[in-house]
Amino acid sequence: MALMAGGELMAGGFIVDDPLLLQALPRQLPLQLMAYLEGTWIGHGVGEYPPHVPRFQYIHELTIEKAVPHGPRELVWSFRSVCRHRETQEGLQSEQGFLRFHPMYINQGRVELVCTQPSGLTEVSEGTYTEDSFDVSSRYDGLTRPGSASRPYVTAVRRWLEIRPQTVPATTMEYRVEMATERTPMQQHLLSRLQKQA
Fold first, then answer.
1. Rounded to an integer, what distance in angstroms lies between the CA atom of residue 185 and that of residue 94?
2. How confident is the model at residue 170 (pLDDT cuts 50, 70, 90)?
3. Closest CA to 155 of 187, 110, 192
4. Is 161 exposed, middle or buried (0-12, 13-18, 19+ CB in 10 A)?
5. What pLDDT does residue 10 have?
6. Which residues of 110-141 are buried (b: 16+ CB within 10 A; e: fewer)?
7. Total-model pTM
8. DSSP assignment of the chain, as one string?
9. CB of 26 within 8 A of CB of 11?
10. Which whole-number Å values give the CA distances from 163 to 41, 49, 73, 147, in the listed order?
11. In the β-sheet with 2-3, what is the strand arrangement from edge to edge?
12. For 5, 17, 83, 144, which has the most beta carbons within 10 A of its beta carbon?
């Protein structure tokens, strides 16, 4: 379908300028999930990774915004995540990346996540989304790291997010990160409960 001079649409070789016919042509629907998620979320979390990392509490700030480029054909958002120790405010972890959506049905489809950390660990994950959640995991050797990375190497990552209640404005987000290394199977590493900031 192409846009012609005068604002008419060409569909299948025919110029469509009838307002009633234009209503029947498929259009890209907004992503309900991102209407909920855009903005800054702050809250508390609990992390651990037995036997290497004992339990700790942290403050988590997550910001999600439209990426550049962004539009009907570029459904891409960027994110920044920072975790600080709950008591000392010491920085524990930060990461940033992009979420790219591929709608298949109304409020459902595939999502791709690209994420990098200051350590150099880079993650490419794929999964699915609905109107109130997404679930992605690293696939096809979707993790890379620099030569200076220390062992044990992370071998797989899974991220899961759900928002509650499923209304605008959404108020609470639960965000979980699971991880596997050369020495340990997939297990929960971080669990955050965040509130959307006004």
1. 23
2. low
3. 187
4. buried
5. 42
6. ebbbbbebeeebbbbbbbebeebbbbbbbeee
7. 0.81
8. -EEPGGG-EEETTEEE--HHHHHHS--PPP-HHHHHH-EEEEEEEEEEETTTEEEEEEEEEEEEEE-SS-BTTB-EEEEEEEEEETTT--EEEEEEEEEEEEEEETTEEEEEEEEE-TTS-EEEEEEEE-SSEEEEEEEEEEEE--TTPPSSPEEEEEEEEEEESSSSSP-EEEEEEEEEESSS-SEEEEEEEEEE--
9. no
10. 11, 25, 25, 37
11. 2-3, 9-11, 14-16
12. 83
Length in residues, the chain: 198
When comparing pLDDT for 45 and 8, which is higher? 45
